[in-house]
């Protein structure tokens, strides 16, 4: 179905990690960091790099992290009156039989079944109608709104179904509705506190780390929309959105290193190196062996002309971090001589 995906390895770039994936059809794009992975999804892919920061999330922290791959998947079938609507709908999609999909949805709606999969299937159907030509100028906005409405209904009834929430956020991003995208992220973060990260995603153990990595990838998507070389008004607004999300995460999870990194990055890209450095130093206190954090700090000290401190951090990385991180630090250290 559209709301499904699979992952394949791909290193990505900067302080923030990247990935707006590509897929057979339409829904899911979550990947791990350190290094990150490309998700198969539609025909969108964005990359951007600033200075040498393209290194950051290609490296591994000293205490190598195991990251979580997130996939939206409609894997749970729902049998009602001896009919497995979900399986039938999936087969109709595979057969590209739009009329059959519509017929199944009508029967499904007339049944007593209001499972989460019903709302995902409805959204799938309408999103496919909206995006038939796969380009914004030809999007059927009425069909697109029907897809969003279906997801809203699902969220109202199944507040802890993370896949439905993510489907809506991703859909908003595809339409460049970044303010709404951000607001939906904030609501999901609030919900994570209310439900104590007891999320429901069929076939997956969706805990706190899983959720935070999911949020990280949505932040990555906004980073990848930004031209870091010359910030436009749109770029500045996106940085502010990322900053808002990062602060909201840190409100509930103050020691989350990824969002300390993201928050610091928003100031870095605005050339506010003092504020950025203060936040990176806080991230260091939280994760003292995180190579990306240490390299960020060294880089800012280099920019500020404090070569002594920069050397201290590069030497720390060379001494304590893995081979790839150490090699990068060694190259940058040699550049200071």
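-> sequence recovered:
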């Amino acid at each position: 179905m559209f709301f499904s995906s699979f992952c394949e390895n791909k290193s990505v770039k900067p302080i923030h990690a990247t990935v707006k994936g590509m897929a057979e059809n339409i829904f899911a794009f979550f990947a791990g960091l350190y290094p990150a992975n490309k998700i198969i999804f539609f025909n969108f892919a964005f990359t951007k790099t600033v200075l040498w920061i393209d290194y950051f999330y290609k490296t591994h922290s000293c205490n190598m992290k195991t990251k979580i791959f997130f996939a939206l998947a409609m894997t749970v079938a729902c049998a009602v009156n001896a009919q497995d609507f979900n399986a039938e709908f999936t087969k109709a999609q595979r057969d590209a039989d739009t009329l059959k999909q519509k017929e199944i949805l009508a029967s499904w709606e007339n049944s007593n079944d209001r499972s989460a999969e019903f709302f995902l299937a409805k959204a799938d159907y309408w999103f496919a109608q909206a995006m038939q030509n796969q380009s914004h100028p030809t999007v059927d906005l009425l069909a697109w709104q029907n897809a969003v409405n279906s997801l809203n209904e699902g969220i109202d009834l199944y507040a802890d179904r993370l896949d439905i929430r993510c489907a809506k956020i991703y859909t908003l991003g595809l339409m460049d509705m970044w303010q709404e995208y951000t607001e939906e992220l904030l609501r999901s973060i609030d919900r994570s506190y209310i439900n104590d990260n007891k999320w429901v995603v069929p076939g997956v153990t969706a805990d706190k780390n899983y959720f935070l990595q999911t949020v990280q990838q949505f932040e990555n998507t906004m980073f990848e929309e930004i031209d870091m070389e010359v910030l436009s008004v749109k770029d500045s607004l996106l940085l502010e959105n990322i900053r808002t999300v990062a602060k909201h995460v840190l409100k509930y999870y103050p020691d989350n290193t990824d969002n300390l990194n993201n928050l610091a990055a928003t100031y870095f890209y605005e050339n506010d190196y003092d504020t950025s450095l203060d936040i990176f130093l806080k991230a260091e206190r939280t994760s003292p062996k995180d190579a990306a954090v240490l390299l960020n700090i060294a880089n800012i000290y280099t920019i500020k002309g404090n070569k002594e401190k920069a050397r201290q951090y590069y030497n720390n990385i060379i001494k304590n971090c893995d081979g790839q991180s150490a090699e990068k630090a060694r190259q940058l250290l040699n550049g200071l001589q």
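The radius of gyration is 21 Å.
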